[in-house]
């Protein structure tokens, strides 16, 4: 009988101690935007709650203390971007990097419980732009494409709307894409996508055009009968210009 009562008391205490949590809305808060540190799992009516900036529920850390529908007091850590809701939640608007850190909320229903939460503040990825060391590359030359961006945790490259073909060299941070010996088949539209958990930016396309040739030069007889007509063709970019020689002398045909 005693053991049974003890178990019941223990489980009630466990519920109130472990029942509350704080959910960040949105999950990945971004500079200049707002976040709600939403208190979840409260059973019963909130009589009073207090938010602290820091890891310890101590008076010098207090942001505010609220007795819903009665009164509230601002603590020494109060700042005007902070707002309390009757359900115990804290909203911070116009986030700045220094808002990042631990917060403690203490909630009084029947008993007093508290929970600590870490608030991350993410910097959004800024514009991603592709630049190159070699604007008019010749085939077999070396070309690097660089994706310029800030605050990215991840950079992905694409060619003509799909992921890169194998065999290209990416730097460890993926910012630089190197063609050690560029080929005519590397011609195409490249983009880089820079992201972190909170944001993502895709660059404008960069068109890589590889100059090559002329090679694979051919002379084809177009007509076996008179008048004789010969056509010269080759693979080249930009398109080649053609000239003819007869017996080693430039012809003026
Ligand atoms: C945040 O707002 C300030 C002031 O409006 C602005 O200068 C800054 O660029 C903004 N930062 C971001 C990451 O949007
Ligand atoms: C508390 O109230 C705020 C503002 O109305 C809301 O955004 C938040 O989701 C509420 N939290 C819970 C747990 O209901
Ligand atoms: C808030 O109101 C309650 C009830 O009126 C009162 O007992 C308490 O002292 C007040 N707290 C502050 C900080 O004014
Ligand atoms: C806390 O500070 C804000 C901004 O100065 C003010 O509007 C509010 O009335 C203050 N609250 C209390 C209880 O003093
Ligand atoms: C680099 O790109 C590869 C795919 O090419 C990707 O799997 C990897 O996550 C990227 N790493 C970084 C740090 O962006
Ligand atoms: C080119 O050389 C051949 C052989 O020497 C000769 O028969 C022909 O007349 C020459 N043609 C011209 C246009 O010089």
UniProtKB/TrEMBL annotation:
Gene3D superfamilies: Immunoglobulins (2.60.40.10). SMART domains: IG, IGc2. SUPFAM superfamilies: Immunoglobulin. InterPro entries: CEA_cell_adhesion, Ig-like_dom, Ig-like_dom_sf, Ig-like_fold, Ig_sub, Ig_sub2. Pfam families: Ig_3. Residues 1-19 form the signal peptide. Residues 124-209 form the Ig-like domain. Keywords: Glycoprotein, Signal. PANTHER family: CARCINOEMBRYONIC ANTIGEN-RELATED CELL ADHESION MOLECULE 16 ISOFORM X1, CARCINOEMBRYONIC ANTIGEN-RELATED CELL ADHESION MOLECULE 19. This is Carcinoembryonic antigen-related cell adhesion molecule 1-like. It comes from Xenopus laevis. The gene is LOC121395503.
């Amino acid at each position: 009988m005693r053991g049974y009562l003890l178990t019941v008391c223990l489980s009630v205490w466990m519920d109130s101690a472990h029942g509350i949590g704080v959910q960040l809305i949105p999950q990945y808060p971004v500079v200049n935007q707002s976040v709600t540190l939403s208190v979840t799992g409260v059973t019963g009516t909130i009589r009073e709650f207090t938010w602290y900036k820091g890891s310890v529920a101590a008076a010098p850390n207090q942001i505010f203390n609220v007795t819903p529908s009665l009164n509230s007091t601002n603590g020494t850590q109060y700042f005007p971007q902070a707002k309390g809701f009757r359900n115990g939640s804290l909203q911070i608007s116009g986030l700045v990097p220094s808002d990042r850190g631990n917060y403690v909320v203490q909630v009084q229903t029947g008993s007093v419980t508290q929970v600590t939460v870490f608030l991350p503040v993410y910097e959004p990825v800024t514009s991603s732009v592709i630049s190159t060391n070699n604007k008019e590359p010749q085939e077999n030359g070396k070309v690097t494409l660089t994706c310029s961006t800030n605050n990215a945790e991840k950079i992905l490259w694409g060619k003509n709307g799909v992921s890169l073909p194998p065999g290209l060299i990416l730097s460890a941070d993926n910012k630089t894409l190197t063609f050690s010996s560029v080929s005519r088949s590397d011609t195409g539209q490249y983009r880089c996508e820079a992201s972190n958990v909170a944001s993502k930016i895709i660059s404008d396309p960069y068109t890589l055009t590889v100059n090559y040739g002329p090679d694979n030069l051919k002379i084809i007889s177009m007509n076996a009968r008179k008048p004789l007509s010969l056509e010269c063709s080759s693979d080249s970019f930009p398109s080649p210009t053609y000239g003819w020689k007869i017996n080693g002398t430039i012809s003026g045909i």
